């Protein structure tokens, strides 16, 4: 099993020694954070350029900058608005971006050399769970399609490849949610439909001009399809996997290795921002108002706020308060870089033959997910850390995923490529 490359930051021994020097009392939060931003723990790089796509789940990165959690840790986050995930990939690899709000599967794909050059990568923390959706065009509704089962019937009556779906990146989360949802309905995502890659901000426009029959993307674009009367929400991603991992704070291995204190400070700042967002409904409303601004999503507040608060409508007359709406912190449960989360994406890469050979699931996850660095950042931010690196999840078909037998799990699907 591959050993994690580095464990920077304040060690337990140094923390206890500092505490003893203060007469055995614990360091106060302000003193602890000051200690982490000075001396040998000072950030090696103070200005950190962090990319983001204009999606609701970029919130922790934006709030860390707007609310100045970054200053608390001696760094300056420079948010960089990007047009699409391919651009984020290229700028991360080239070093134009130091870190990014990025698709979980994109980082894992880069590590394996899928959908881009092979490049050692790092996941510092998870930014959010839930909050994506699969939208279908109004033309499908007119044809009697309202769910996956009726979609299968429609496809069986149509010419092969006549139904087109869009996702946002070949190894990204949206591709995996779309493939899983289609496959559970008996629709082969490569043989029965046509799939294309479209940047998130271009989804609604392409549906408007008839380039696709459906798409899987993050918010606010699913709600936008409803408010623009172009389509409806056929499924939310949390219906596929309640409390699934989504975006991460990703970086390159070489940047993290060369700037361990900066990486830790960045993680701590974004972690505090995530906690602030989830602390109250008022904070979520304020976050939505900030994100709606021109510098970020540049859209009307009502397109963000409802689903940010878990208030859903599907465009077919149904409204509900979602029990698994987008969340950013949940006492650190969201933020922890669970090894099992990363391993799940590897099982889907192998299932769909994106990874031609079976990966060493646990070894790859340990190379990418920087659990030790996260623990140090969590210590600075006074966030509890789970004792186990794996978690147990139940997906829409009742299958249980806990990372204990990834090879068997990957082989368990009857529909694959």
Name the structural class. alpha/beta
Beta-sheet strand percentage?
A: 15-25%
Q: How far apart are the first and last residues' alpha carbons, in Å?
A: 28 Å
Number of folding domains?
A: 2
Task: Using the coordinates above, name the CATH class of the largest domain.
Answer: Alpha Beta
- Regions with little confidence, pLDDT below 50 for 5+ residues: 1-32
Number of helices: 20
Query: How confident overall, as mean pLDDT?
Result: 92
Helix and strand layout, with pairings?
Elements: H1 12-21, H2 29-36, E1 47-52, H3 59-66, H4 69-72, E2 76-81, H5 85-94, E3 99-103, H6 104-112, E4 121-126, E5 132-137, H7 138-142, H8 148-157, E6 164-167, H9 173-184, E7 194-197, H10 203-208, E8 214-218, H11 221-227, E9 231-236, H12 237-240, E10 247-252, H13 253-258, H14 260-278, H15 281-291, H16 302-308, E11 311-313, E12 319-321, H17 339-351, H18 361-368, H19 371-381, E13 393-394, E14 400-401, H20 406-411
Parallel strand pairs: 1-2, 1-3, 6-7, 6-8
Antiparallel strand pairs: 3-10, 4-10, 5-8, 5-9, 11-12, 13-14
Helix pairs in contact: 3-14, 6-17, 14-19, 17-18
Describe the structure.
This is Nitrate/bicarbonate ABC transporter substrate-binding protein. InterPro entries: NrtA/CpmA_ABC-bd_dom (IPR044527), TAT_signal (IPR006311), TAT_signal_bac_arc (IPR019546). Belongs to the CmpA/NrtA family. The protein has 417 residues and is an alpha/beta fold. It has helices spanning 12-21, 29-36, 59-66, 69-72, 85-94, 104-112, 138-142, 148-157, 173-184, 203-208, 221-227, 237-240, 253-258, 260-278, 281-291, 302-308, 339-351, 361-368, 371-381, 406-411, and strands at residues 47-52, 76-81, 99-103, 121-126, 132-137, 164-167, 194-197, 214-218, 231-236, 247-252, 311-313, 319-321, 393-394, 400-401. The protein folds into two domains: 47-129 and 245-310 and 326-403, 3-Layer(aba) Sandwich (D-Maltodextrin-Binding Protein, domain 2); 132-239, 3-Layer(aba) Sandwich (D-Maltodextrin-Binding Protein, domain 2), CATH 3.40.190. It contains 20 helices and 14 strands. The strands form four sheets. The chain has a five-stranded mixed sheet with strand order 2-1-3-10-4, sandwiched between helices. It has a five-stranded mixed sheet with strand order 7-6-8-5-9, sandwiched between helices. It has a two-stranded antiparallel ribbon with strand order 11-12. Helix 3 packs across helix 14. The two termini are 28 Å apart. Mean pLDDT is 92; it is low at 1-32.
